[in-house]
């Protein structure tokens, strides 16, 4: 919101004009003169943990999630009876899904960039949004890209060989240069394949470790937020792993 209090920002570079204030409508009924108060701005938001054996693919994540978070927003009306207020959720306005890591980033990273990726699941206009298919295999994608780059390099070596043939050099010098090109071409492809294979193995192990680390961090943040909600206090600071102090080790 800007200083004049009228602009609502929807995304970087865009804003909407805030409408003026409006009194709520009040409906009276029942034997005890219960009231129902309604206003276009009244809404309720809730976050739920979803668990399932089939899981789901989420936008911004490369693997299937069996545990994730959904956020729902409903319009709301305020019921008052027996001198007490009770908010009642009605029409669902929006539903999104987030991985536990995305949720942890969402609640802990305010005013940063354009927001956190999430998966749209429901809008009143579209109803239930089609789910996301399995993402591309990143290993295959990287392998294909590397193969394309390798073909480009091999083609450049062959072009260089043709330039050597046309160069005003002695046959002996041309032969020496062509031998070096041949050695480079023969070693390039097998070595690249070996490095790519080892890289794939390393990335597979790294991905599995990253899943465990992300899940542990998300559980820590969720537990911390639950503690804050129950106690009304501040949550604990994130645990940071630091290298041991050399002076302390020497002592």
**Largest sheet: spatial strand order:** 3-4-5-6-7-8
Q: Could you say which structural class the secondary elements and strand pairing correspond to?
A: alpha+beta
SSE topology string: EEEEEEHEEHHH
How far apart, in Å, are the first and last alpha carbons? 55 Å
Give the proportion of residues in helices: 40-55%
The beta-strand count equals 8
β content, as a range? 25-35%
Low-confidence stretches: none
Please describe the biggest sheet, giving its number of strands, its sense, and whether it closes into a barrel. Answer: 6 strands, antiparallel
Tally of helical segments: 4
Q: Would you tell me the overall average pLDDT? A: 77
- How many structural domains? 2
Shape: elongated
The whole-angstrom Rg is 30 Å
Please give a structural write-up.
With 251 residues, the protein is an alpha+beta fold. The chain folds into 2 domains: 107 residues, no CATH class; 94 residues. It is built from 4 helices and 8 strands. The strands form 2 sheets. The protein has a 6-stranded antiparallel beta sheet. The chain has a two-stranded antiparallel ribbon with strand order 1-2. A hairpin with a 4-residue loop joins β3 and β4. α1 packs across α3 and α2 runs antiparallel to α3. The radius of gyration is 30 Å and the shape is elongated. The chain starts with 6 loop residues before the first strand and ends with a helix. The mean pLDDT is 77.
């Amino acid at each position: 919101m800007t200083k004049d209090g009228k602009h609502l920002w929807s995304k970087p570079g865009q804003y909407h004009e805030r409408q003026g204030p409006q009194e709520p409508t009040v409906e009276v009924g029942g034997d005890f003169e219960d009231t129902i108060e309604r206003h276009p701005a009244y809404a309720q938001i809730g976050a739920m943990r979803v668990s399932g054996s089939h899981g789901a693919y989420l936008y911004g994540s490369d693997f299937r999630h069996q545990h994730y978070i959904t956020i729902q927003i409903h319009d709301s009306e305020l019921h008052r009876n027996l001198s007490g207020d009770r908010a009642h959720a009605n029409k669902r306005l929006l539903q999104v899904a987030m991985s536990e890591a995305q949720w942890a980033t969402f609640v802990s990273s305010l005013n940063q960039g354009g927001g956190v990726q999430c998966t749209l699941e429901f809008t009143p206009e579209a109803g239930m949004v089609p789910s996301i298919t399995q993402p591309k295999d990143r290993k295959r994608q990287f392998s294909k890209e590397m193969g394309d780059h390798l073909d480009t390099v091999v083609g450049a070596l062959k072009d260089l060989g043709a330039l050597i043939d046309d160069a005003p050099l002695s046959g002996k010098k041309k032969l020496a240069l062509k031998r070096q090109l041949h050695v480079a071409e023969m070693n390039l492809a097998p070595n690249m394949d070996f490095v790519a294979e080892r890289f794939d193995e390393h990335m597979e192990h790294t991905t599995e470790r990253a899943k465990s680390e992300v899940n542990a961090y998300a559980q820590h943040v969720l537990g911390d937020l639950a503690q804050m909600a129950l106690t009304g206090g501040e949550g604990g600071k994130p645990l940071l792993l630091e290298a041991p102090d050399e002076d302390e080790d020497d002592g």
